[in-house]
Amino acid sequence: MSHDLVVLGTDPSGDDAPRPGAHDLLAEAETVFAFPQAESTALFYAEAWRVEPVTPRDAVARIGAWAAGPDGAAVLLVEGDPAGDAALGAVLDGLARTAPALRARVAEGSRVAPPHRSPLIG
C-alpha cells in the first residue's frame, strides 16, 4: 500500500504570493486534513467533502485510520510555517510510530495564502 502525506503551511501575513506547487498538492489530494487555524484556508482551496478538520490531539488517530485504507495522497494543512509548529512535530512522530508505511514529508517553502487573498491574483 502507498500513502503519501504532504504537510503544507499557510502564509498568515498574506504578504507572499502562494508558492508554486502548493495549489497543485491541494488539488491532487483526495483528503485535506487541516488543523483548526488552517481549516478556513483549506476550505478556500478544496471542496468541503475533501476537508477533514483535525486537532493535534486526534490527528495521529485520524490520519492513521486514513492510512490504513486504500492507497492515496493527502495534505495536512497547518497554520504558518510547519518547521516552527511543535504540535506538528508530535503528530509526525506519532505517525512514524503508528503508521510506519505512511510516507509523510513537509513541503519546504510551500505555503498557501489564507482566504483573504485570492489564489488567482498574482
What this model shows, in words?
The protein is globular and about 35 Å long. The mean pLDDT is 85. The protein has 122 residues and is an alpha/beta fold. The protein has helices spanning 22-28, 39-45, 59-67, 86-98; strands at residues 3-10, 31-34, 51-53, 72-78, 102-112. Helix content is 30%, strand content 27%. A 5-stranded parallel β-sheet has the order 3-2-4-1-5, sandwiched between helices. Helix 3 crosses helix 4 (86-98). The protein is built from 4 helices and 5 strands, in the order βαβαβαβαβ.
Q: What's the short story on this structure?
A:
The protein has 122 residues and is α/β, with parallel strands linked by helices.
The averaged pLDDT comes out at 85
Distance between the termini: 38 Å
E-strand count:
5
- Output the structural class: alpha/beta
Choose one word for the global shape: globular
How would you characterize the largest beta sheet? 5 strands, parallel
Unreliable stretches:
none
- State the order of secondary-structure elements, H for helix, E for strand: EHEHEHEHE
Please give the share of residues in helix. 25-40%
Number of helices: 4
Our Rg estimate from Cα atoms comes to 13 Å
Residue fraction in strands? 25-35%
User: How do the strands line up in the largest sheet?
Assistant: 3-2-4-1-5
Q: What is the secondary structure topology, with strand pairs?
A:
Layout: E1 3-10, H1 22-28, E2 31-34, H2 39-45, E3 51-53, H3 59-67, E4 72-78, H4 86-98, E5 102-112
Parallel strand pairs: 1-4, 1-5, 2-3, 2-4
Helix pairs in contact: 3-4
